[in-house]
Amino acid sequence: MLLGKNLILATKPFAKEIRSRSWFHTISTLTLLVLLLVGTLLMPVIALKLICSIIAGLLLIRMFIIYHDHQHHTILTKSTVAEVIMTIFGMYMLSPTSIWKRSHDHHHNHNSKLFSASIGSYPIVTRKKYLEMTRFQKFTYLAIRHPITIALGYFSMFIIGMCLRSFISNPKKHFDSLIALVIHITVAVLLFVFWGWQAWFFMFFLPFLIAFAIGAYLFYAQHNFPGVEFYENKNWVYEKAALESSSYMKMNPVMAWFTGNIGYHHIHHLNSKIPFYRLPEVMKHFGELQKCKVTTLTPRAMSACLKLKVWDQETNQMIGVKGL
């Protein structure tokens, strides 16, 4: 039975990309994405435009996971071509490299710590802290974690959180956030003016809305689920946080493909150098990783995750706020 650091060390043979597979997944995903986006313009009827738009939104999620792995230096390292592609894609997805890498690395290094800055993750307070908050503080805290805020991740997490807040906090360091936002708005306006509302809606707005909504929820639910553990900083251990505070989100094969196996989140947090396409292989190889905390994308499971608001230190569990 492998535990702790020994388990991390045991996964190291899988923390090696297969270069040809990395390029295949990148090129095939980008090609399909471009074809579907073009399809939103060329399809003769709205129903077909809608289908292309929805699939394009799902492909944006898959490509974002590929970008995410590249930012972890997990795949396509030391490739100038890949660096150019990923830099452009990061800007396109309102997640330029400067802010995405800084915030996401912080998330990995502080996952499930109770009293660290909520950089790159949803804020979490204890029951005691929540009861001490003012009415406005409670409103603000709950608004950030509200299902509508998560569903509108396009605006809340990416336009405001990733781009506006990062640029305002440090204009020099995150100037690329402003560039990404300006390009994004310019493209939206040009599409609307020169190609009309259908081009703007199906090629631009809807794919982003779908991708960011699903992405925001996945990120939320993989660290806010029944059975999740949170720790005071002094009791925090990296490998324990990875396995106890990150879920395995069980999905059907189609959704697992579109989300780039991000459902194997406990394994990703244990060793972020494992390429996304090798995560199922690692799960099968280690029985220890199969004994994990599971959630799904069923309405019941999603409702259970969204009801969780604060950490009760007395019962060591996440709870709602009704009745507090």
Report on the architecture of this protein.
By secondary structure, the protein is mostly helical. It has one domain (19-319). It has 17 helices and 4 strands. The protein has helices spanning 4-10, 19-42, 46-71, 80-92, 97-110, 127-132, 135-144, 147-151, 153-169, 175-195, 197-221, 238-244, 253-258, 265-270, 279-285, 287-290, 299-306, and strands spanning 248-250, 294-296, 310-312, 317-319. The strands form 2 sheets. It has a two-stranded parallel sheet. It has a two-stranded antiparallel ribbon with strand order 3-4. Helix 3 (46-71) packs across helix 4, helix 3 packs across helix 11 and helix 10 packs antiparallel against helix 11. It is globular, with a radius of gyration of 20 Å. The chain starts with a helix and ends in a 5-residue tail after the last strand.
Reconstruct the topology from this structure.
Elements: H1 4-10, H2 19-42, H3 46-71, H4 80-92, H5 97-110, H6 127-132, H7 135-144, H8 147-151, H9 153-169, H10 175-195, H11 197-221, H12 238-244, E1 248-250, H13 253-258, H14 265-270, H15 279-285, H16 287-290, E2 294-296, H17 299-306, E3 310-312, E4 317-319
Parallel strand pairs: 1-2
Antiparallel strand pairs: 3-4
Major beta-sheet overview: 2 strands, parallel
The N- to C-terminal Cα distance equals 41 Å
Q: Number of folding domains?
A: 1
Runs in which pLDDT lies below 50 for 5 or more consecutive residues are none
From the alpha carbons, calculate the radius of gyration and give it in angstroms: 20 Å
Tell how many strands the DSSP assignment holds: 4
Question: Biggest sheet, strands in spatial order?
Answer: 1-2
The overall average pLDDT, rounded, is 95
Beta-strand residue percentage: under 5%
Helix content: 55-70%
Tally of individual helices: 17
Shape: globular
